[in-house]
Amino acid sequence: MSYITLYRKYRPARFEDVVGQEHIVKTLQNAVKQNRIAHAYLFCGPRGTGKTTISKIFAKMINCEDEKHRPCDQCENCLAVQQGNHPDIIEIDAASNNGVNEVRDLIEKVKYAPLKGKYKVYIIDEVHMMSAGAFNALLKTIEEPPAHVIFIFATTEPQKVLPTIVSRCQRYDFTKVSIKDMTKRIRDVLLQENIQYEEEAIRLVCQLADGGMRDALSILDQVIAYSQNQITVEDVHAIYGILSVEEKINLLKLVADHKATECMETVHRLVEKGIDIRRTTSDLIEILKETVIHDYSKDVHLLSVLNEEEVYEAKVSKTTKERLQMIDELMNTYEKYRFASNVGSYFEVCLLNMMSMEEQSNVSRETIQGNTHESVQPVIQEQEKIKPETEVIKETSKNTVKGLDKEFVLSLLVGAQKAYRNEDEIKMKQLSNYYLNPNWARFANLLRDHILVASGEDYIVVAVNNQAVANEINEQDAQGAMIDFMYVLLLKKKKVFAITEDEQRSLIQEFKKRHQEGTLPPAASVQVEIDQLELVKNLFGEENIEIEE
Ligand SMILES: [Zn+2]
């Protein structure tokens, strides 16, 4: 008999068995009870959090023949769903079938009545991967779906789904499954499988799964294959190339004691052993974060990685402030891994930076207080004081502008004028009028949470709260796609340059400093070149324009 993975074997068949997502389950259950079923749903959330599972249970419930006990798990419809061969439940993976033809086929068949059940349910997974053409084709169907059709769109990246689709769906946001819920489920599974385990090993599996129940069960599958009937912490370490908490604390100690050579040797060894450096970095952040939580709360029950003994060890004789700076440095480095091919060397630099950072803060503390070993009793106010200070150190010592060249953005700020900014700010308030406009929604939504940083004659600089959105705005602008929207919104052709809010803060500091030093770059010159005719066509549609020779 072939082996059935735990994920498939223990996949919930009823809402009662779903782990986490209580609010979603409850709302959908009520919808079924009251027969208030929408025609399109959007399930958003991280991988493995139950989007497809809940879709299938929902599809089963609305097609169940026993109206009083849905799902009855006995009628023909229920059984067909269970066996995965219900003809009216159609699953499409947009990541693999992203062609317009595929969706055309779907739309063709949408009009036919269901074969077996009451509803035809289309479950479209990773819907954000669909091509723009396919999206648009689908849009018309969603606007006026036949009464017997229900769409369930699932996505891990809702920001990439066209706003015109989102606005026509009932949206549900799935959250990561908590360690507590996950642990409980895993214990149940192991009990049913009759497998012994160390409690600590289960905690590790849950941490590795990072909120995804599906991942947790796949990890468990591998661990069981390796260790058979007794799962130990060592097994999990060995399979997943992760360090024990003790080893991670030791690494922090090497940093704290300025043992640079040993530190570098350790990193080399980790890389050679195939230890996941990204994960190690995020684990160190987690460990230090827990020490800070402990500083403030003195409550070990709030911790999930460290136990009481470890939390004191992990403070590595450093003050709260110093550990917050270390967290800052680690987080900064973690961000950079996305662009790095050699993660190990970034990690080394990070550890060295943490050493030198402490020297700096020791020196300043020595000069101010004349005492390097006083333990600082944290109070909440102090934390607020620390935050901007660490940011200044971080931001001025390194350039963190990733998307746009820092010098260029400074030159944009130099060329900006308050009068333009005041004008643009008023007009930007009209942004919300375009959120649902089929021509402009994409651009309006990208700018939805922006802060207008500066305006020049031919450009604006905006700050947004995440790097991906900033990149997307800059990309759209570089392709010339943004400028028409700016013409509609600002009544002036302007280029849009986007930075993140973090970059904004650091740039303003930098601007002030360089202004005092008199070292600011000259004002940027931004050329706006667009074809007037193209613009008019885009605004009014080609068919409405007659061209005179
Ligand atoms: Zn049934």
Bound molecules: zinc ion
Summing up helix and strand content along with how strands pair, one would put the structural category as: alpha/beta
CATH architectural type of the largest domain:
3-Layer(aba) Sandwich
Count of folded domains: 4
Mean pLDDT: 83
Strand content: 5-15%
Unreliable stretches (pLDDT < 50, length at least 5) are: 364-399
Order of adjacent strands in the largest pleated sheet = 2-3-4-1-5
Instruction: Find the CATH topology of the largest domain.
Output: Rossmann fold
CATH class of the largest domain: Alpha Beta
Oligomer: single chain
Shape: flat
Please count the helical segments: 25
CATH superfamily of the largest domain: P-loop containing nucleotide triphosphate hydrolases
Largest sheet: 5 strands, parallel
Number of DSSP E strands: 10
Question: How would you describe this structure to a colleague?
Answer:
- The chain is α/β, with parallel strands linked by helices.
- It has four domains: 21-173, P-loop containing nucleotide triphosphate hydrolases (Rossmann fold, 3-Layer(aba) Sandwich), CATH 3.40.50.300; 179-240, Orthogonal Bundle (Helicase, Ruva Protein, domain 3), CATH 1.10.8; 245-367 and 381-397, Zinc Finger, Delta Prime, domain 3 (Up-down Bundle); 406-538, no CATH class.
- It is 55% helix and 9% strand.
- The chain has 25 helices and ten strands.
- The chain has helices spanning 6-9, 22-33, 51-63, 76-82, 100-110, 132-143, 163-166, 179-193, 199-209, 213-227, 233-240, 245-256, 260-272, 277-297, 308-314, 320-337, 343-369, 380-397, 406-414, 418-428, 441-446, 467-478, 482-490, 501-517, 532-540, and strands at 40-44, 89-93, 120-125, 149-155, 170-173, 196-197, 230-231, 451-455, 459-464, 495-500.
- The strands form three sheets. It has a five-stranded parallel beta sheet, covered by helices on one side. Strands 8-9-10 form a three-stranded mixed beta sheet, with helices on both faces. A two-stranded parallel ribbon has the order 6-7.
- Helix 2 (22-33) runs parallel beside helix 3 (51-63) and helix 13 (260-272) packs antiparallel against helix 17 (343-369).
- The model is unreliable at 364-399 (pLDDT under 50).
- Bound molecules: zinc ion (ZN).
- The site of zinc ion (ZN) has 9 residues, from helix 4.
